[in-house]
Design a protein that fits this description.
DNA polymerase, domain 1; TIM Barrel; 2 domains; 10-stranded mixed beta sheet; two-stranded parallel ribbon
Length: about 350
């Protein structure tokens, strides 16, 4: 019998499911609390539920359907985690421990259809979107790995494999479950959605009344270079992308985060820093300068420390808010898609 997966369902949907079982709908709130507040996947431990209901849920349902199959750690600050889906596909998440809290980076697709040459996510093609249960399931499994008495995931970033806004409905459902009071209760202001710049979906997101941070993978200050690094730019060039970013910032009151991967002798020249400063001069934003995570098979490499520092100083001297964000876990396949590629290559070699 196909078991019902409870993660990814709203409280209202759980209420309907429980009503079909002959239970009062208020039981849904109790089940939601066990799943999202206590991160419990054993129905026998849900002690405020009637024993008959616990037995029925064990027979018909599962909280989550993901299984952790591999992980790699970089000291005690970064852990890359591979999870297997019910159809055998592999996805990745990253846990990053910092002074201010624990962040988890979630995937939204198996592979990626965008095809940016900087990223390993799409190098093996695109398979499918993740369901809301599979997206929230990553958070659930990683939270369960933490010390329940002292560690809690405080920040969520949708920056793993895939383009979140191409899987719009499932991603937004996951955001509401992780950020809503009925769910995990993580502050929406501590949730970040990444995009390569899908303008219609960005405009739609601005109308959702969700104060989440929008992170735009920019990587270049002009269309000529961005067409090469982010192919979707040919469809949504900077002349439409930047106004959409301004619209998002003005409509939500949240500044936009621009991700800029620093690539040696490609986009790290001083004149490009000055061009970037002009492009973003009147956008409420913050710029994250990130040394490129090298991708096997790619010709691109990370900028030198000198080039990175020079670029940063030009931006800040010209009045922009910028941060140099060090890449974590370079030795643990921490770039999007790299651990999945290693696992799938290993499986191919063994057959």
């Amino acid at each position: 019998m196909q078991r019902v997966i409870l993660l990814g369902r709203t409280q209202e949907e759980l209420g309907e499911l429980l009503t079909e079982m002959g239970e009062p709908s208020y039981r849904a709130q109790q089940v939601m609390q066990w799943i999202y507040q206590h991160r419990e996947n054993d129905f026998s431990r849900m002690t405020n539920l009637p024993s008959a209901l616990r037995h029925r849920l064990r027979e018909t349902s599962r909280v989550n359907d993901l299984q952790i199959v591999d992980s790699s750690e970089d000291g005690d600050s970064t852990e890359k985690i591979a999870l297997q889906l019910s159809d055998g596909e592999i996805i990745e998440s990253v846990l990053i421990r910092r002074r201010y809290g624990n962040s988890v980076c979630l995937s939204t697709q198996v592979g990626c259809p965008i095809g940016c040459p900087l990223c390993a996510s799409g190098m093996d093609g695109f398979t499918r979107d993740l369901t809301a249960a599979e997206i929230t399931g990553q958070w659930f499994e990683i939270q369960r790995r933490l010390d329940p008495g002292s560690e809690r995931i405080s920040h969520v970033v949708f920056m793993g494999s895939g383009e979140p806004l191409l899987n719009y409905s499932n991603t937004l459902r996951a955001v509401r479950l992780l950020g809503g009071e009925d769910g995990a209760g993580i502050s929406y202001r501590r949730i970040t959605l990444s995009t390569v710049g899908l303008v219609p979906e960005m405009k739609r997101l601005a109308r959702e009344d969700l104060p989440v941070t929008l992170a735009v993978s920019l990587h270049a200050p002009n269309d000529y270079l961005r067409d090469r690094l982010v192919p979707i730019n040919e469809k949504y060039p900077l002349e439409v992308l930047i106004p959409a970013c301004k619209e998002y910032a003005e409509g939500t009151g949240r500044r936009v985060s621009f991700e800029y991967a620093m690539i040696e002798q490609v986009n790290d020249y001083p004149e490009l820093a000055r061009e970037l400063a002009i492009l973003l001069a009147d956008v409420k934003c913050h710029i994250n300068l990130i040394p490129l995570n090298p991708v096997p098979g790619s010709d691109y490499s990370a900028s030198s420390e000198d080039a990175l520092t020079r670029f940063y100083r030009i931006l800040t001297d010209l009045g922009l808010n910028a941060t140099v964000r060090r890449s974590s876990g370079l030795d643990i396949d921490a770039g999007c898609g790299q651990l999945r590629r290693r696992i799938t290559a290993r499986e191919r070699d063994s057959t």
